Amino acid sequence: MKESTKFKTGISGNPKGRPKDKTASYLLRKSIINDMPQILSTLIEQAKNGDTGAAKILLDRCCPTLKPQAMAINLPTDGTLAEQGSYIVNATLSGAIAPDIGAQLINALSNQGKLIQLQELLDRVEDLEVNFASQLQTLQLAAKNSRVSR
To answer: Which residues in 46-79 are b (16+ Cβ under 10 Å) and which e?
Structure first.
């Protein structure tokens, strides 16, 4: 059996841990922070001179892209899915609904139609199973009665 090992269980070989201010990422961040005013001035000058890459960096960091805002839409909930879809298409074509929102609504209606079809199929299968079980029970009872009467 081996009694001496290089490391002892539960005892750290480096109790103070890694020095926080000596890592490469820390030193790079510190350098960037120290030189930030000069870096920004250089980027601004490059952007002014037509460097679109520098302009993009500045705009991406200083002016975040605008996200589309959801608007409230009143849609009729009565009528068939086809009628609701027609309403959405007409509202999209007239400009009352943005095209991307209209496409999402049509997609949602399509998915709703698929769910309705699936539920109808499940209901039909359940009805068939109940009818089959009832007919099977009737046939089994008739077969039993015919054996008894013989």
So the answer is: bbeeeeeebbeeeeeeeeeeeeeeeeeeeeeeee
